[in-house]
Amino acid sequence: MSPEQYLKKWVPINEKMRQENFLWGTLFENDEWHQYMSFDLYKMPKYQWNRIIKATQEIAHILQKTYKILCDDDSLFLQLGLPASTHGLKNLISRYFSYFARLDLIVNGDEIKVIEINCDTPLGYLETSVCNRIICEEHDCQSPNHLEENIQQAWEQIKQDYSIKPTDAIYFTSFNWHDEERESVQLIRNNCLNQQTRYIHVGNIVISENGLFTPKGEKIDYLYRLYPLEFLDLADEGRDKGLIFIDHIAKGVVKIINPPSAFIMQSKAVMAIVYSFLSQGSTLFTVEELKLIEKYFLPTYFDERFFKDQTYIAKPFWGREGGGISIFDAQKNVIDEDRTAYYYRQKRVYQKYMEMPEATISTWDGDYTGKLLIGSFLINAMPCGLFLRVGERITGNLSMFCGITI
């Protein structure tokens, strides 16, 4: 297919997605436009889909148990590397470590490994719901993803767990200038049914000693935020206000969604702690649970010296979108890395490198062969959809997503 023929097909599909608020089919980076949406469809065998769903459930079980252990063990909790200002947040116990999460998985043959836990501020909602449905319609098949249904169920659970009344207002926040974040929040908001909801730009939240308010003086008691909590402490500007915000969360002045537990479990240190339960033969887990850790979790440590004659990867505690990641060969030479300053200077964990399988998708520049990463959404503690991206060894902003069916 020539570039002209490809774009003749791509543009109408992208327009359909734009009409449903997916506005980032292309991304401007490094002074040029890049394709992000590929209308290709990955046809996954039913047995593989079922294995990924089962793996998601079993990994979630290990993470949920780990969360409870971390809340009860101060020495383990300190290994997470959380800002000192946030330590009091562990006393706010949540039913689930996250109501809205995405696990990033490498699925290579019969092997499934989790490499990331995106449980504080995950993205990829519109790609997995709206875009996947449109791509499947173009291919005359059905999307197997059902995010919206699970999001609605999550809100019913949240309203029960937070004792939110129908007359209470839930505020939703993100950066209003960031299309992906704003529209992702709106999708989450639109599926919070039978409830008063309002959107507020994160920069417009008024932080005072008495609580959080809108510019009109309306008090914010419940806040869904697509804003990482560590930014409140680690930000170069506005840290004083951020610390007041954190204190309000700890004292219950404002109740946030995702809860603080999602922030706690977002630390990449969790991966090293989970693997330590296996390597040290922890009695906190059953034999069957330790086998699940061995099956799904890669060797991960706080010290790179554990890796001898092996390729491994270094990940910052609070890395996102591949920021600050380095890949080393067996001789400790850098193979690939991202040096985004904010992430690169953070503490890091070291994880055994596992090669992702290759996948080829069509683009407006011709066929592209890259590494396939599978995101598995866990919403309201239930698997509900897969998000496929094809990119380089380090899956970053410029990886492309494609549709999936079974």
UniProtKB/TrEMBL annotation:
Q: Where is the Glutathionylspermidine synthase pre-ATP-grasp-like domain?
A: 15-405
EC number from the UniProt entry: 6.3.1.8
What UniProt keywords apply to this chain's record, in alphabetical order? Answer: ATP-binding, Ligase, Magnesium, Metal-binding, Nucleotide-binding
Q: GO MF terms on file?
A: ATP binding; glutathionylspermidine synthase activity; metal ion binding
| Regions that span the bilayer | none
What the entry lists under SUPFAM superfamilies is as follows:
Glutathione synthetase ATP-binding domain-like (SSF56059), PreATP-grasp domain (SSF52440)
What is this protein called in UniProt? Glutathionylspermidine synthase
